[in-house]
Amino acid sequence: MTLLRISDLKTQFPTPDGIVRAVDTIDLSIGERETLGLIGETGCGKTVLGLTLMRLLQSSTKTEGTIIYKGTNLLKISEAEMRRIRGEEIAMILQNPTTSLNPVMRVGGQIAEAIRLHQGLSKRDAKEKAIEMLDAVRIPSPSIRVNEYPHEFSGGMKQRVMIAMGLACNPSLIIADEPTKGLDVTIKSQIMKLLKEVTEERAMLIITHDLGVARELCDRIALMYAGELVEYATTGEIFEDPLHPYTRGFLGSLPSNGLVPIPGMSPSLINLPDGCRFHPRCGHATELCRRKHPDMIEIEDGHFVRCFHA
Amino acid sequence: MLEVLGLTKYFSSGLIRKRYLRAVDDVSFKIEKGKTLGLVGESGCGKTTIGRLILRLTKPTGGKVLFDGIDLFALNRRELLAIRPRIQMIFQDPDSSLNPRMKIGTSIAEPLKLHGTIPKAKRGQRIRELIETVGLNPEHVNRYPYQLSGGQNQRVVLARILAMNPDLIIADEPTSSLDVSVQAQILNLMKDLQKKFDHTYLFVSHDLDVVRIMADRIAVMYLGRLVEIGETGDIYDCAKHPYTQALLSAATVDGGKERIVLKGETSSPIDMPAGCRFHTRCPRKRERCTIEEPELVEVGRDHYVACHLV
Amino acid sequence: MIEGRKILGSIGLGILTIFVIVAVFAPYIAPHDPHQMYRPMEHPSSSHLLGTNDIGNDILSEIVYGTRVSLFIAFVVSVISMLVGTSLGLVAGYFDKVGFLIMRVVDVVLTIPRLPLIIVIASFIRPSIWNLIALFLIFGWTMPARIIRSEVLTLRRRYYIDATKMIGGSDFYILWRHILPNVIPLVVVQFIMEAIHVILAESGLCFLGLGDPVAMSWGMVFHYAFECPIIYVSDVWMWWMLPPGLCIVFTVLGLTFVGYALEETFNPKLKNPFGGMER
Ligand SMILES: Nc1ncnc2c1ncn2[C@@H]1O[C@H](COP(=O)(O)OP(=O)(O)OP(=O)(O)O)[C@@H](O)[C@H]1O
Ligand SMILES: Nc1ncnc2c1ncn2[C@@H]1O[C@H](COP(=O)(O)OP(=O)(O)OP(=O)(O)O)[C@@H](O)[C@H]1O
Ligand code: SF4
Ligand code: SF4
Ligand SMILES: [Mg+2]
Ligand SMILES: [Mg+2]
């Protein structure tokens, strides 16, 4: 069963220097209990895609396409309905915990707020639940910590508070933007265990730079480059048999694989290169690549690639 | 270059019944000029606090920090202002280390302006160089931080710090919000700069692969205390402390060694266990461990461990 | 909703602009010298659009010049209050020890009931514009000081403040360059609230006869009209009392609309993903 189907989604920001095409014609779908990983270079549009799904971008943003969630197009419904969906149906764990937490509100209060808004629990019960959530994300002394302010938490602890907030309302779909950023290996493995349990009964879109996390948690993985998807397959195939030159380069720059970066710079999203967007950095680029923009093709069953020479 | 002696920080909270949170407890280490010390440890163990203490952004409870022979804690306001540019810290959360109402270009220009080392006419040129060095596009200069991705902001922060050309850089997870490819670029850049300018780094990271590549020596922390410190090779090949061993085994993906799974909860820095702080989770705990706190002892050349077993 | 705010804001801005133009160009706009005596108690006519008062002054001209006085008082008080309040709020939020002292003073001043005390003091001192202004200033700085301080307390925890310290920015530089711009929206809102307060309070004092008898503000026009017995038995109030009253109402309305519209502009870019309210 498909829970969320995105088709032809475009998100553009008008800026004085030109239009930033942050998300450019994306097609994706997520099944009811599926965990989908979204990987790609920094600035390629992953967070913007997540925020577009949540309709959390500023009003000057242009969005086109359709986002069908449980049969309704999220881009068409009213703000009031969207508010209900946010948190209750879809929750997003934001990337930047420090700026996303209210500095003058106690941590417990912020988690409880999310719970109370959607579940109508009493203040006391909501606080109990907040303590429970802090405990679930492995914060020591949770009953003391609920009464502290965000600046009293360490970076990784704030990150875990974000996770706690995202999970608090039992949503059907969680968009987790780098949920394990800033966590050490031991806590990371505990958090991954928690996320794994959580995803047994719901869908999740994980945006991450941590390929280990992606490998362990995701059923399928989509690679994004300069606003569009370039490869899309099951986790196993992405890691065992990557087809797109970008994917290969990406895996090659892991520290354990020798820390070899992909040459060149990511393109400007205002002046995208003609033809294949990756061609200025691609070792296999041909004349065709410079002229024509490749389409996503299904090379094997369920393995999609956007490259002429894959 | 940098010598930290008995550095201690307790955060107090609660007006009536004072509670102390022992964030950093009697930590000592040395970093030689042009070398890198990697600092690893569980989330919330006090790594960021050490960095902030060295910069005097947080008031210390006790201890001494000698930078180039100068006692940083004894400086008055003016002397501090004069020495600060030589010590820089890359904060953990890049989004909040930039002023949200300041354009990226202005932020990068700020250190140049404050120090006037470069004449006004040449500043634009220098800013363009910096932007290129960290792999940003010129179009980003006129944007505000919220208009950039997490990783792009991280690179802005880096550019700002490079503009200062400091002697000591405290890098608090400088690459945690970067993808592997850009991470590789930035790490290589940092290493090149170190060779060229003889920078000294205190490098905090959760990614043990990264630390291994970057650091000459490694310090491992647990709940506010150093538990092991030594040459990178020694730590990776013959770690002596049970926590270090667990940390390393959790990180090895290909399962060469047997994975040590830590049982039990992380203790809280608010009510610290008596004896060895690690005893609640230590797989090799003895009776003595619950009573007596182990001291750092030398076990090899420049290799110190705090554990009763060694 | 955003559109609605914009429209209201423009309306408010329009109203205020008209009043400001009237105030600035009063000598060109007023048909007569407000101190010139004509025949008293004339009804509106082509030469005196709003008639004349009991001593023969042209009422319209009085109101036009009154705009000057009323807006001048409100403007001067608000500007000085914001300057003083913001500076003290910045200092109080950034330096703990001085801040503690400043806040205790604020606490004391804020516990005093503002309007009653103003009335009491005003009835003892010689009524003049400058005395009124001084009186309003005693209280005007406290609210902005307190609000700005609490904002600074949270702002200074942001890492970019530490990051600026690190690159060698002095405390003054940080306050000026990094903290002040972030509190400006609050200052603007406080400015509007203070202006509304002063306009209303000044009219109230004048109405009670505690205004400056020589500086004809809207409140004073209103006051003299009220003191004249004829007002109760004829329809003179329609051109003598109503117009200054409406001026006061419209100024307050204009300010409120602008404030309401600005609130939207100043809101941060993102909404809260977990619930209804906006960050
Ligand atoms: N409000 C905005 N106005 C203009 N451009 C924007 C805005 N928000 C984001 N962008 C641009 O859109 C692109 C995509 O940003 P996004 O935050 O989605 O990146 P990301 O893939 O999440 O990267 P990271 O891994 O670094 O977080 C970036 O190049 C960024 O500069
Ligand atoms: N200003 C503060 N007030 C009170 N407690 C604080 C403050 N800053 C940090 N702490 C506490 O001190 C401890 C150490 O925090 P620190 O930020 O140094 O951890 P860290 O090692 O950097 O962790 P992470 O890897 O998660 O960033 C934590 O328990 C944290 O809650
Ligand atoms: S289409 Fe051409 S340029 Fe693009 S990735 Fe494939 S080979 Fe490289
Ligand atoms: S001192 Fe004891 S409890 Fe602590 S690490 Fe060593 S063996 Fe484990
Ligand atoms: Mg992102
Ligand atoms: Mg930290």
Structural features:
heterotrimer, A: 310 residues, alpha/beta, Rossmann fold, 2 domains, eight-stranded mixed beta sheet, four-stranded antiparallel beta sheet, 12 helices, 12 strands, C: 279 residues, mainly alpha, 72% helix, elongated, disordered C terminus, binds adenosine-5'-triphosphate, binds iron/sulfur cluster, binds magnesium ion
Write a brief structural summary.
Chain A has 310 residues and is α/β, with parallel strands linked by helices. Helix content of chain A is 35%, strand content 25%. With 279 residues, chain C is mostly helical.
Structural write-up:
- The complex is a heterotrimer of chains A (310), B (310) and C (279).
- Chain A contains twelve helices and twelve strands.
- Chain A has 310 residues and is of the alpha/beta class.
- In chain A, helix 4 runs parallel beside helix 7 and helix 5 crosses helix 7.
- By secondary structure, chain B is α/β, with parallel strands linked by helices.
- Chain B is built from nine helices and twelve strands.
- In chain B, the strands form two sheets. Chain B has an eight-stranded mixed β-sheet, sandwiched between helices.
- Chain C is mainly α.
- Chain C has a domain at 76-183.
- Chain C has helices at residues 2-24, 26-29, 59-94, 96-111, 114-124, 129-140, 142-155, 159-166, 171-207, 218-227, 237-240, 242-266.
- The model of chain C is unreliable at 268-279 (pLDDT under 50).
- Bound molecules: adenosine-5'-triphosphate (2 copies), iron/sulfur cluster (2 copies) and magnesium ion (2 copies).
- Residues 46-47, 95, 177 of chain A line the site of one magnesium ion.
